[in-house]
């Protein structure tokens, strides 16, 4: 693992990066390509309160607001990017930006969000130092701030064999899996590996996914994790 990826969990790395980076950048997928799935699992008509973790300078939340979402809270460990995004969106009351570490969201009450969206934040923590402790800390905090039956939508490069056990060991979730071609957001695809809106069957260890998608498919994985209100994490 390279030095830069090991620093993905450190505020100084992101402060330095955002100090020298202008414009917006979206990890993995842009909002339009994921909008149908977001609309399905986070219906706009219920006026959901949404938390976007590790927001960076992404235009994803801006896309959500343009699509009718009215309450999108964004957090990031980098004070540099948070200040920049506050200024950029000062005339959008639907968007809030707060400097915060996803491993400690004590500023938020338990059960205060209908949905949490994560594009690359868990992946960054898994690349960083002490990921064995930091990843479960993050997931338990995500679980805590969600309302009963709230959804955690995780967009990741991590296949089920690398993510399912971590998700299940950390908290009590009901998990559905969707996939989207990596190139969809850039140039479109007439024949995607798997239709975005069709869940991929998953068994206990995720091995069933290979039967559907083949070996090493060029996709991003989208885990839709619904908080189980009956079981609490330890």
From TrEMBL:
<feature type="domain" description="Methyltransferase type 11">
    <location>
        <begin position="51"/>
        <end position="153"/>
    </location>
</feature>
<dbReference type="GO" id="GO:0032259">
    <property type="term" value="P:methylation"/>
</dbReference>
<comment type="similarity">
    <text>Belongs to the methyltransferase superfamily.</text>
</comment>
<keyword id="KW-0489">Methyltransferase</keyword>
<dbReference type="InterPro" id="IPR013216">
    <property type="entry name" value="Methyltransf_11"/>
</dbReference>
<protein>
    <submittedName>
        <fullName>S-ADENOSYL-L-METHIONINE-DEPENDENT METHYLTRANSFERASES SUPERFAMILY PROTEIN</fullName>
    </submittedName>
</protein>
<dbReference type="Pfam" id="PF08241">
    <property type="entry name" value="Methyltransf_11"/>
</dbReference>
<keyword id="KW-0808">Transferase</keyword>
<dbReference type="GO" id="GO:0008757">
    <property type="term" value="F:S-adenosylmethionine-dependent methyltransferase activity"/>
</dbReference>
<dbReference type="InterPro" id="IPR029063">
    <property type="entry name" value="SAM-dependent_MTases_sf"/>
</dbReference>
<dbReference type="InterPro" id="IPR051419">
    <property type="entry name" value="Lys/N-term_MeTrsfase_sf"/>
</dbReference>
């Amino acid at each position: 693992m390279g030095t830069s990826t090991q620093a993905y969990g450190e505020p100084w790395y992101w402060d330095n990066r955002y100090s020298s980076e202008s414009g917006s950048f979206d990890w993995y997928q842009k909002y339009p390509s994921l909008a149908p799935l977001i609309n399905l699992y986070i219906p706009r008509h219920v006026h959901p309160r949404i938390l976007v973790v590790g927001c960076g300078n992404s235009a994803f939340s801006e896309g959500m607001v343009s699509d009718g979402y009215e309450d999108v809270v964004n957090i990031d460990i980098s004070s540099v990017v948070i200040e920049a995004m506050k200024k950029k969106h000062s005339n959008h009351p639907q968007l809030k930006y707060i400097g915060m570490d996803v491993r400690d969201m004590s500023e938020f009450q338990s059960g205060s969000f209908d949905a949490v969206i994560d594009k690359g934040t868990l992946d960054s923590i898994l690349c960083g130092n002490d990921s064995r402790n930091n990843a479960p800390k993050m997931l338990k905090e995500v679980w805590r701030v969600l309302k009963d039956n709230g959804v955690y939508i995780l967009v990741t490069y991590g296949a089920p064999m690398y993510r399912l056990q971590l998700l299940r060991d950390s908290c009590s979730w009901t998990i559905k899996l969707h996939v989207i071609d990596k190139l969809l957001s850039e140039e479109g695809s007439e024949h995607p590996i798997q239709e975005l809106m069709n869940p991929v069957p998953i068994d206990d260890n995720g091995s069933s996914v290979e039967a559907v998608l083949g070996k090493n498919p060029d996709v991003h994985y989208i885990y839709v994790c619904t908080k189980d209100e009956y079981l609490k994490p330890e």
